[in-house]
Design goal:
Layout lengths: L13 H22 L6 H13 L4 E5 L2 H11 L7 E5 L5 H8 L3 E5 L21 E4 L11 H10 L3 E5 L7 E2 L2 E2 L6 E5 L13 E5 L2 H11 L3 E3 L2 E2 L10 H11 L2 H18 L6 E2 L6 E2 L5 E4 L3 H10 L29 H9 E4 L7 H17 L1
The protein binds pyridoxal-5'-phosphate (PLP).
Pyridoxal-5'-phosphate binds next to helix 3 and helix 4.
């Protein structure tokens, strides 16, 4: 163990964020408690209106997680048993699990090494008569290349569902993440760029029929109280979470700008450090949910950074197609070479809006020193 003279640098610091908004959050929570309206209701309605506007979209349906958002979006699109949904394996497992929940089969395309997102050039060749939808994932806060993906989807009559769980506020060719596909799914898990104080998620869409279907599905299939038209779910958003999210939404653009400042500082300080950095694609403006670096020596670097008091994380160490839960898909090692290489080499450095320039220099300095030694 190396002893450190510095305080340790966490991977993210939600306590610092809470201190900066404590008075407003505490008042918002107290007002929900006093109202005793805890599930859906006026706070959720208000948040839905504000978040739809933020995403430059017409409708937002608040749900209890990003995973539920994906599940309901696919159901609203009519996806079910016998259907295929195309997505990527280099993502959080929920993207693929949601496809399975509907009874449909996930079909993978590889990602591009520069953007870490869906390679549009591989999309067309996996489409079959059973393909119903495609889920590009805006990984690390950077949008997938949506124009060619939407163009191919449109030509084949496929619904495009954006997995925007890591991309609140990102832009693609001047358009907000969430306003590009037929539907987009967000997660408000605490560590996301817009995080609740518990679980939360949303589907955003400009299609009023899809929005109406999702509203029914999230609330036991009710069209009015105790009138159950379809088999629905209890996937409702809580008022306490909506109240917290409304306070935080007002600060999201500022926090995303702070993340950009941190990312720029990492870039300056990591030049020539012997690790590959993620490429910011010219087509958009990422929101740096995480700041990944790539090195074949990832495991050693992660351990040695931890010994220097720096907490790095991995997004994600095992691609979904190689997880035991998806072994029945029959896709072992070698099926998706770029996804597999990224999973083996990626390491996410500390990234949060409150990280200051000195912390960034310390992290980058440690990466530089440790990777030179390897
Ligand atoms: C977080 C995340 C999800 C799932 O969201 P939960 O709110 O945790 O259910 C889905 N997809 C991606 C890419 C995510 O990062």
């Amino acid at each position: 163990m190396t002893t450190t003279l510095h305080p340790s640098i966490p991977f993210l610091d939600l306590q610092a964020q809470y201190r900066s908004i404590k008075d407003e959050v505490d008042a918002a929570v107290a007002s929900v408690l006093a109202s005793a309206h805890f599930v859906l209701g006026p706070e959720v309605d208000a948040f839905e209106t504000e978040f739809a506007a933020y995403c430059e979209s017409a409708h937002c349906i608040g749900v209890n997680s990003g995973t539920s958002a994906l599940h309901l979006a696919l159901l609203a699109a009519g996806v079910g048993p016998g259907d295929e949904v195309v997505t990527v394996s280099h993502t959080f497992v929920a993207t693929v699990a949601a496809i399975r929940y509907t009874g449909a089969s996930p079909v993978f395309v590889d990602v591009r090494a520069d953007s870490s997102t869906m390679d549009p050039e591989q999309l067309e060749r996996v489409i079959t008569p059973r393909t119903r939808a495609v889920i590009p994932v805006h990984l690390y806060g950077q949008c997938a290349d949506m124009d060619p993906i939407c163009e191919i989807a449109r030509a084949h009559g496929l619904v495009v569902v954006e997995d925007a769980a890591q991309a609140h506020g990102a832009f693609y060719r001047g358009r907000r993440a969430g306003s590009i596909g037929e539907m987009a799914c967000f997660s408000f898990y605490p560590g996301k760029n817009l995080g609740a104080y518990g679980e939360g998620g949303a589907v955003v869409t400009s299609d009023p029929e899809l929005a109406a279907r999702i509203r029914v599905l999230r609330d036991h299939g009710q069209t009015r109280k105790y009138q159950h038209e379809v088999l629905g779910y209890n996937h409702r958003l809580e008022a306490l979470q909506a109240a917290v999210l409304r306070v935080k939404l007002r600060r999201l653009d500022g926090w995303n700008a702070d993340r950009r400042r941190v990312a720029d500082a990492y870039r300056r300080n990591l030049q020539g450090a012997g690790v590959r950095l993620a490429h910011d694609m010219a087509y958009g403006e990422p929101v740096h949910h995480v700041f990944p670096i790539f090195t074949p020596d990832r495991e050693r670097l992660r351990v040695e950074l931890a010994e220097s008091g720096i907490a790095a994380s991995i997004h994600y160490p095992i691609p979904v197609h190689m997880q035991p839960a998806f072994a029945d898909l029959g896709l072992g090692a070698g099926a998706l070479p770029v996804s597999e290489r990224l999973a083996a080499e990626t390491l996410s450095l500390p990234m949060y809006p409150e990280l200051d320039e000195e912390d960034v220099r310390r992290v980058a300095g440690a990466v530089r020193r440790l990777s030179a030694r390897g």
